[in-house]
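Still learning. Any example?
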Amino acid sequence: MKNKASLLLHLLLLIIVIVELAGRITDVIYLEYPVKPLIMPWMAAFFLLFRKKKSLTVPALLAFFFSWAGDIFLMFSERNELFFYAGVGGFFLAQLCYIYVFFRFSETGERGYLQQHPFVGLLFIAYVAGIYILLLPGLEGIMRPIILLYALSLIGMSMMALNRKGRVNRTSYLLVFIGSLLFVISDSLIAVDRFHGGIPLGGFWVMLTYIPAQYLIMRGLTLEE
């Protein structure tokens, strides 16, 4: 029964992804209006059906909800900059939820990878510092602290995904960590495209990395025991 449900859900996701990416690559942005709002509800539905650890449910669903809110607001960011701020706020809260989930829940009770190798964290800090310096000339006023705060939450999320190594089963760790890296890439593309210079087919590349990012994180969490 669950195998059939998984197949049907994945077919639905495939349709969502095809329509979304088609709209991006053809620059017919209205194609995304009926499908983009379905991405995170799909993640939530799959998670609820297949999760193993029930204690993850509330914080994971909150992360999916705030991501969904961020998706909705960003859809209208070209009409009014306030929607962009709201979208960043939604994803900021989503990153905080992911940080909580990645740090709080463990299968082994062991210290995480970054707790044992703290200097590895410097690579993440160097990356976020480099991106911020690249963007700084294009940031004005309140955008400077907003983007810095969000960048720190985003890189903190990926660091906590790495920190799960040794604390959860290997498959769960790998899926979540790879997903977190794709999330960093996706949001970096958004920032560079908006504040540094237009990226050819920027929206396409953003969604091509964003959807797998959320999917891999969600699938990794369903496998945590």
